[in-house]
């Protein structure tokens, strides 16, 4: 067998492979003899089928397997000889002109790029800083109260924040349009469930009062037959209810899992949960900046084969997510090409981080993994049970190890870059800013 190599592009390689026909014939004969021991045919006992018949029946299969094995071995030998790291699978192409007594092929494939981490000095990273205090706990408890809002009937005009029960009929050019009619329809004024003009028209009406008003749908309204159209609504208010927030007392605390109903203990638990969530969000923000810095200082070309495989995996994940939501993916085709940019970024970061971890020995230490799992377990009713769950299977523990490795990378890059602390508002960090 003879091979030679050309370099058509930065990551693509081409290996020419010549396989001697004599070697192929020898391998075909060996395979047919092995088949003959077990092959079954009507009129013959197993293992007693004449070789001529075995060759006639299974010769094509044996030859194909023999050629494939020979090419694979020649490819593997050359790759190992030159120390190449193959990315993906090679594309085997038969040559148009074949030599005497031999079969000639070309194997086209990509290799992993050489990764050299760039200079991180000067890359700016802002670490958000937020101390959780009473004000943050109060805001969170208010959110929990609003999530448990009840409504009570009132004899007054509807105001912002009230829930109203209405009948309505919408007409376009005098005709009731599709979806324009409903009875006993509830909505909270100001919650955004209805268009702003519709909500404004209902404001000030009492139970039993009606109103007819004109309005126009937005040009980008999701129902195309109504987008930008002028219509007329007739609305009758049947009930007005005001929001009632639960009092922060023993019953409220018990409803949130505090067995003895002690409000002080509820506040302690809320604060502990908030501190964990704030830490998680700060880490996520810093991590995103670190990843951007690594990409900025380490420009590399990535193998197309790896990007395609990653895009395929992302598409599969999207399909599973849709199916878990009850949607049929056959009705919603998910194309891997939609994820090309995201897949390339993920592959690039994966290669950069792997090199960074290897060179700087940033692997996850057992004590780091255990500390992380213990920290995650604190938010569960039975922390020990979660600990056992993680340590029961290596695959689960590997997920925690991956998080630790990312944390190690973030810490290492932050120590090399221009990292500064910056105070951040609670609402902005938690995504509640107006």
Automatic annotation (TrEMBL):
Domain PPIase FKBP-type, chain residue ranges per copy: 161-224
PROSITE patterns xrefs: FKBP_PPIASE (PS50059)
GO MF, one example: peptidyl-prolyl cis-trans isomerase activity
Keyword Cytoplasm: yes
Coiled-coil boundaries: none
Catalytic reaction(s) noted: [protein]-peptidylproline (omega=180) = [protein]-peptidylproline (omega=0)
Gene3D superfamilies: 3.10.50.40, Trigger factor ribosome-binding domain, Trigger factor, C-terminal domain
SUPFAM superfamilies (UniProt xref): FKBP-like (SSF54534), Triger factor/SurA peptide-binding domain-like (SSF109998), Trigger factor ribosome-binding domain (SSF102735)
One Pfam family it belongs to: FKBP_C
Main location: cytoplasm
InterPro entries xrefs: PPIase_dom_sf, PPIase_FKBP_dom, Trig_fac, Trigger_fac_C, Trigger_fac_C_sf, Trigger_fac_ribosome-bd_bac, Trigger_fac_ribosome-bd_sf, Trigger_fact/SurA_dom_sf
Top-level class of the enzyme under EC nomenclature: isomerase
Protein EC: 5.2.1.8
Keywords: Cell cycle, Cell division, Chaperone, Cytoplasm, Isomerase, Rotamase
Compartments, record wording: Cytoplasm
Similarity remark: Belongs to the FKBP-type PPIase family. Tig subfamily.
Function: Involved in protein export. Acts as a chaperone by maintaining the newly synthesized protein in an open conformation. Functions as a peptidyl-prolyl cis-trans isomerase.
Listed NCBIfam families: tig
Domain notes: Consists of 3 domains; the N-terminus binds the ribosome, the middle domain has PPIase activity, while the C-terminus has intrinsic chaperone activity on its own.
Protein's recorded name: Trigger factor
């Amino acid at each position: 067998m003879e091979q030679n190599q050309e370099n058509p592009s930065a990551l693509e390689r081409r290996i020419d492979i010549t396989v001697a026909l004599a070697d192929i014939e020898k391998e075909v004969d060996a395979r047919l003899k092995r088949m003959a021991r077990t092959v079954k045919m009507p009129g013959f006992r197993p293992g007693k089928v004449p070789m001529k018949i075995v060759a006639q029946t299974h010769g094509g299969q044996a030859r194909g397997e023999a050629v494939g094995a020979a090419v694979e071995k020649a490819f593997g030998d050359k790759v190992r000889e030159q120390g190449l790291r193959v990315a993906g699978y090679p594309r085997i192409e038969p040559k148009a002109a074949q030599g005497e007594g031999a079969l000639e092929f070309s194997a086209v494939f990509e290799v992993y790029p050489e990764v050299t981490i760039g200079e991180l000095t000067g890359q700016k990273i802002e670490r958000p800083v937020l101390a959780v205090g009473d004000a943050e706990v109060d805001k969170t408890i208010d959110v929990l109260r609003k999530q448990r809002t009840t409504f009570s009937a009132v004899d007054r005009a509807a105001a912002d924040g009230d829930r109203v029960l209405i009948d309505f009929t919408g007409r376009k050019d005098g005709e009731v349009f599709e979806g324009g009619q409903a009875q006993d329809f509830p909505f909270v004024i100001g919650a955004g469930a209805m268009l702003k003009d519709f909500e404004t028209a209902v404001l000030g009406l009492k139970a039993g009062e009606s109103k007819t008003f004109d309005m126009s749908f937005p040009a980008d309204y999701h129902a195309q037959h109504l987008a930008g159209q002028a219509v007329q609504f007739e609305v009758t208010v049947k009930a007005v209810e005001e929001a009632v927030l639960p009092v922060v007392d023993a019953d409220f605390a018990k409803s949130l899992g505090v067995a003895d109903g002690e409000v002080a203990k509820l506040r302690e638990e809320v604060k502990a949960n908030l501190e964990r969530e704030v830490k998680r969000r700060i880490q996520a923000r810093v991590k995103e900046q670190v990843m951007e810095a690594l990409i900025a200082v380490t420009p590399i070309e990535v193998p197309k084969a790896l990007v395609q495989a990653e895009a395929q995996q992302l598409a599969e994940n999207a399909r599973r997510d849709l199916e878990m939501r009850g949607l049929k993916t056959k009705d919603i085709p998910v194309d891997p090409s939609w994820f090309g940019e995201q897949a390339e970024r993920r592959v690039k970061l994966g290669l950069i981080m792997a090199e960074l971890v290897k060179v700087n020995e940033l692997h996850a230490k057992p004590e780091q993994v255990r500390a992380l799992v213990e920290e995650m377990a604190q938010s569960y009713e039975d922390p020990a049970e979660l600990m056992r769950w993680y340590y029961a299977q290596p695959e689960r523990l590997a997920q925690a190890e991956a998080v630790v490795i990312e944390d190690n990378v973030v810490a290492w890059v932050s120590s090399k870059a221009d990292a500064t602390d910056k105070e951040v508002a609670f609402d902005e960090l938690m995504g509640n800013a107006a």
